[in-house]
Amino acid sequence: MSEYSWPGGNGWSPAGDPIAAWPETVCALPVGTRITGAVIGRQPFGVFLSVDGHPAAVGLARVDRMPVCMDLPTVGQRVSGEVVWHADHNHQVGVSLSERARHDELTTRFADRVGQVVAGCVTTIAPFGVFVRLAACVEGLIPLSDPVMDVAEAVCEGQEISVQISAVDLERPRILLAARPVEGSPPDRTRPPSPTKQPSPSQRS
Fold first, then answer.
1. So what's the pLDDT on residue 91?
2. How far apart are CA 63 and CA 40, in angstroms?
3. pTM for this structure?
């Protein structure tokens, strides 16, 4: 079996029509409902789940609702979690896995550290920003809009950098960071090059 697969590729099929059963599914599984089930498919963006007691329902736990130190569960693995949203357009139930909830508590430890400058390690460079590990199972994001840093040029994965905690969102949860130049780094990796000096009028003639 491939590392990634869709539910149908693993022999799973819903008992009934998920579209016809959708109103009943939403009513039976409101946001906040605790669920258990099995992984029926996995993709880079998350895992699809069957939901115990609701054979026509399809759950989806996205990677942004998983701990940063957690690998994708494998097909057939039993998991538990909580309903966090409903997607009417594709009739899926969003799930936050229980392991995520336990790790979310780690983020709260940084809520009173907004404004502090801390050390971290770059783990991922994404099109929208840079992820930095602040502690075990805790990462923050330097958004692409950060004016201090050219994300594509200034850092590399595995690099130790200094960052400032600019915000802690406990609802999502996530930590937003601002980049800070690292002492001893090559000048061209922490600030833009000096503008080229233009010749004077007398030098041009």
1. 95
2. 15
3. 0.55
